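Lecture 7 notes: from sequence to structure.
We start with the chain below.
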Amino acid sequence: MAPAGSTRAIRTADTTSTTSTTSTTGTTCTAVPNRHGHQQEALPMKLRSVLTALALVLGALFAPGVGVLTAAGEAHAVTKISHATATSMFRSSGITWSSSGGCSNRNVSTCTSFDQLNLATAQGAQTLRSASGCALNITGGTETGHASGTYSHWNGYKLDFGKATCVTNYVKNTFTYIGVRGDGAPQWKSGAGNVYADEGNHWDVTFYNCGGC
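Predicted structure tokens for the same chain:
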């Protein structure tokens, strides 16, 4: 028996048990032991469920290739077509094409190739044909040998059209003159935003879209 006035130290064994309590709001909280063996209150079950759901939603949104969170380059992705598809489209619209080498190999500069042409570019040529009523002959496509750049022949945005009175009059009388390019070529812009540069013996056209197809 301990002497009067003395304090008896009571040792309690560490446990791994959990204790559940109910708050005044009716939410059940669970006390769990930490690594020192002392009990600590865990997050309310409802709150844990909300946080878990939020984490799943954010994980899905930020996953590669999803919705508006994709990279800026992907936001401007374009549809590419083959040489065969492009020629079929041009043929159906009465558009012709030619090359000094009489070939369609994309890796030969004297050929006229439509491999990897943007679908919108092919449609833009069809729009020009139907809107102008002029005969069109394409002399340059996606083959090597043209100037480089994002909106280039190689990347499928440009086509060269042989110079002819009909198409020249249509471009100059219908579109807006916007001044000369860095290399001195005068330029006209269509209402759709496509740019026509007069390179002397042909029209160098940049199709940012199909021209209202």
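Points to note: Residues 123 and 210 are 5 Å apart (CA to CA). The chain has a mean pLDDT of 79.
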